[in-house]
Amino acid sequence: QYDWDGTLKMVEKATEADVRRVLAKARRNxxxxxxxxxxxxxxxxxxxxxxxxxxxxxxxxxxxxxKTISMYIPMYVSNACTNKCVYCGFNxxxxxxxxxxxxxxxxxxCKAIRSLGPFENLLIVSGEYPSLTGVEYLEKVLHVCRPYxxxxxxxxxPMKARDxxxxxxxxxxxxxxxxxxxxKEAYRKYHPQGMKSHFEWRLNxxxxxxxxxxxxxxxxxxxxxxxxxxxxxMLARHLRYLQKRYWRTRFSVNFPRMRPSExxxxxxxxxxxxxLARLTFAFRIFDHDADISYSTREAPSYRD
Length: 304
Hints:
By secondary structure, this protein is of the alpha/beta class. The chain is 44% helix and 12% strand. It contains 14 helices and seven strands. The protein has helices at residues 4-12, 16-28, 35-41, 50-65, 103-114, 130-133, 135-145, 161-168, 184-190, 199-203, 205-211, 228-245, 273-286, 300-303; strands at residues 73-78, 121-126, 151-155, 174-180, 216-221, 250-254, 291-293. It has a seven-stranded parallel β-sheet. Helix 1 (4-12) crosses helix 12 (228-245), helix 3 (35-41) packs antiparallel against helix 12 (228-245) and helix 4 (50-65) packs across helix 13 (273-286). The longest helix is centred in the C-terminal third of the chain and has 18 residues, at 228-245. The radius of gyration is 20 Å and the shape is globular.
């Protein structure tokens, strides 16, 4: 129901007076900010107020989470994929050896991860290949991993609600899924073939997670596929909708960004370090409770 171009215009027309008004409301903390107000804080007009936003962001972070950072570690169980996403190394047409772990290999990975240190949050990742890594396989993987970790999350293909519910009974705590971009027309260009080419199936997957009673839902967009500002505002709208509908569920947001690479595919737009910081501060001011995740692909000096 939201217009992409209209969303971008809303960000672009924001003034410094709008920023001051939104920050004043945020400091009073009487009522949560709306997604439209969030759009003001990611605009370039907010750049002179970065330090104010950083202080306010830190205040709400420490009120909710204290001075803590949670670490998770990924375990890739399969790089087989039926999709042909133009930006992804797992693209079905890329010529390299595919591997799906046996349950014995999964357990060996668990033991190896435990030997690295006190990691308690495991993210189980796979390409989207239903006949190899469908719900039956993932259920077995969860049973193998459960004795080793307190928290198990999957980042796999979108599923039916009944499949998510089935996995929650097998030890699943959370699901991470990136919409990649909320620009419906552009989405088809980046995901030409495979189940991932179905925009609505992926978008509505978050509702299926909520209906299944998944404890925690992780969401995000791949910043740089399209204008990052449009995807950020759409993400904020999506989060608010899900929070109202599935209020027993916890949520996290992720800000993976595309960078120039040696591959043939390049980002359409780049989000700078400063813009990513502003987006992070703005999202914490917008929502005090959602976890905010950063990738270790970011430079250590920056994420620290």
